[in-house]
Specification:
- The protein has an 8-stranded mixed β-sheet with strand order 8-25-24-23-9-20-22-21, with helices on both faces. It has an 8-stranded antiparallel β-sheet with strand order 12-11-10-19-18-17-16-15, with helices on both faces.
- The chain contains 29 helices and 25 strands.
- The protein has 884 residues and is of the alpha+beta class.
- The chain folds into 4 domains: 9-46 and 118-231, Calcium-transporting ATPase, cytoplasmic transduction domain A (Distorted Sandwich); 243-313 and 666-880, Calcium-transporting ATPase, transmembrane domain, CATH 1.20.1110; 323-338 and 529-659, Rossmann fold, CATH 3.40.50.1000; 343-524, Calcium-transporting ATPase, cytoplasmic domain N (3-Layer(aba) Sandwich).
- Adenosine-5'-triphosphate (ATP) is lined by residues 332-334, 406, 408-409, 434, 436, 439-441, 456-458, 490-492, 548-551.
- Residues 8-82 form the Cation-transporting P-type ATPase N-terminal domain.
- This is Carbonate dehydratase.
- InterPro entries: ATPase_P-typ_cation-transptr_C, ATPase_P-typ_cation-transptr_N, ATPase_P-typ_cyto_dom_N, ATPase_P-typ_P_site, ATPase_P-typ_TM_dom_sf, ATPase_P-typ_transduc_dom_A_sf, ATPase_P-type_domA, Cation_transp_ATPase_P-type.
- The chain crosses the membrane at residues 62-80, 86-102, 250-268, 280-302, 681-705, 711-732, 753-776, 782-800, 821-841, 853-870.
Amino acid sequence: MDDDAQKNWFAKNIDDLQKELKTDIELGLAEDEVKERLDEFGENKLDDIKKESTLKKIIKQFHDIIIYVLIAATIITFLIEHYIDSAVIGMVVIVNALIGYFQESKAQKALDSIRNMLSVEATVERDGSRVEIDAKQLVRGDVVYLFPGDRVPADIRIVDADNLKVEESALTGESDSVEKQVGALPDDTVLADRINMAFSGTSVTSGTGVGVVVETGNHTEIGKINEQMTEVKEMETPLTKQTAEFGKNITIAVVLIAIAFFVFAYFFRDYEIGELFLSVIAMVVGSIPEGLPAIMSMILAIGVQKMAKRNAIVKSLPSVETLGSVSIINSDKTGTLTKNEMTVKTVITPNQTYSITGEGYAPEGEIQSETKEKDPLLEKFLLATKTANESELFQDENGRWNITGEPTDGCFITLAEKTDLSLPETEEIDKIPFDSSYKYMATLASGEEGRMIYIKGAPGEIFDMLHGNNEFDRNFWEQQMEQMAKHGQRVIAVAYKKVSDQMEDLTHDDVKKDIEFLGLAGIIDPPREEAIQSVKAAQTAGVQVKMITGDHPSTAVAIGKKIGILKNDKAITGKEIDQMSDDELAEVIEDYAVFARTSPANKLRIVKALQKNGEVTSMTGDGVNDAPALKKADIGVAMGIKGTEVSKDASNMILTDDNFSTIVDAIEEGRRVYDNVKKTILFLLPTSAAEGFIVMASILLGISMPLSPVQLLWINMVTAVTISFAFVYEPAEKDVMVRKPREKGSQLLSKYYVFRIFYVAAIVAGTGLIVNTIMVDNGFDHAVANTVTLNIVVFGKMFYLFNVRNEHGFALNKSFFTNKVAFIVCGILIGLQLAITYAPFMHTVFATAPLEFGLWFIPIALGLVVFIVVEMEKYLNRRFFSKH
Ligand code: ATP
């Protein structure tokens, strides 16, 4: 095998292809061969886009106006020979950069680990059997199966195609699908015309196919362009942007105020110019919440990681935020709200009614009838449902019976095993696979009685095909179907058609006439128990749940009631939706919780109508056709297990367990994360403002600064390394899923929060200043008074942290001890305060002095005052004004 020369694979015939790639399209490669090829040519993946080096990332942290100001201050203080100040300011710069770097890389790591979870699977033939593998393990010569919704995992030469259509916009920009063929093409065929090739990164829109891998990794066409396909994008979110913008505005305002104060103090007060300059700088540094955006990204990213642990892979940070405000969950029924473990319970042929015993896929049970009369149609029925089928029954290593493929197919294989009749063998010649847009499947097969088409599908569709068949009494069968559906059974109609022995290809037109009816099957699919709980939880949280299903309205209503979505018998069908205009649909949509007989196209209109009504909408989907609705939804949710790659690409979130409950869990996590971001802001702003107030007030009052510049910088530094981390790990508040969803576009900082910021800042700054003045007046040394003030500010911050931890209730409650990190960081902070108060070298650097024991009561008592005042204000506010 030639390793690096790019070959004209499209120009080769299949025999040459097999020879050159040393493979066999029937058996695939042998595992040993695969190992050798993997060792030789490497994995099938694109090189990572060059990552930023650590140094570059650290340097980036210095690119910030506030840091420029600080660097300028370091240089100026050095020049005026204030070496200690210069060193401390320099330290602040470095510590800030390191914290920023640490937070950013932690966020990046969290996102990278998510990216690794987004691996693409490929179905290959190896050693003669069909297996699913991680697409990275593909090598040249591998035989790959392609199904609708698959992402083509490597460059593949097609060797078999059944209506195979591939959308290649990732490569060519052309969004119309291209129909693929098998025959060799001329040597000079250009890329866009190579219709016997499927290229890595493109996606199968319909049909099925088989191909041989001819290029992998960077050698693929997409690899040559080197574009990453699956990427966790966007570190920025509306929230971080809003805060970054907000932070910038504060910076500008603070700098302007600082300049004004500097000028004022220079002319009207007699501070030493060096100290004044430093105080103003310290005020700027202290008042600006420079760490805010980084800590927010970290909270969001760690949130993403937590969600992944709860089976929800969120692909970008903005979605974490949006999740918190979701007001409607639109969910597929089968497999998400129900178990997707189908069992046929009833069969009705035109001759007899049968009930089937046994549950699940184990072929244990009987097909029982009321009479013992022989029914030739039963045998035909069983043969039809076994043949128009893409599933296989097997026992896993633990002896449990399971199926491959669709449960709606699998349950018929189990059914066929439950009969005593011996069903004849058939050979499949062609097929129309099942698709929810036309809702049936058909197989052309040859058997004992020649060639037949076997069809199974939704009753409405099959009944339409039977139009013109005089023996078929549609009214009667509709009633039968209705009866089954009312019991929550999923109903499948079965038919067949005898065709000529020359027939080779099957098209939709072939099943539209002259078919014979064989009967109905009623299938049960029990609801997931946890889904029932989660529907209730969502409803309590003010989130409506809507069920979208391809099933019959009566089946859907019965299941909707069981799950608790529906209180009445109201369901709307896809057909009814089709007949409505967008405005009409938006008007009535809020009245319906169950959408039946829907097609994927209906989903898009449902999303649009809900969004028109101002709802923040989540929508689930798994098929190729669901992609537009998933993209349009505020939160598109794809199924990790049964979802196609295309649907995963189009979505914001992937459920690794396909479970409805996971969506509700993710919403809860989204609300928690949003709360914590908000709490961080609500914590950082007042405490930063307090530092600014102290400097401003002393300048205005013309008193000596109660905190020296380096002391202010110390406060800034130690609180940045400690308590600002507390909210990353803050658990959800008790009422997180009792509240209504956050309103769309609601302001991050309401007037109430601005009020809170000011009064908390005023208490901390005011008490600090007053105590300082009283102490100095009473003969205490400046150093001692300042050390007390320093501790007042830090303890004020620490106590206030506990106010903010619980915004919606009393701070002292059962969950007080749930956030260990909050206590650890407070412990560290107290340690640091003891160090600055008692360590001799700290005295030299920070001009602090040891405190006698009794003086500690002042900061602790005043911290308590902050705590009690805020708790009282929160209580009054809850009681009399709003929901805060
Ligand atoms: P959802 O997953 O959105 O809840 P669904 O799985 O119930 O929807 P579809 O898969 O679109 O809906 O199925 C619609 C109807 O098509 C079913 O009610 C059933 O009558 C029929 N049907 C489903 N799967 C098959 C199949 N494999 N073979 C034949 N008919 C099928």
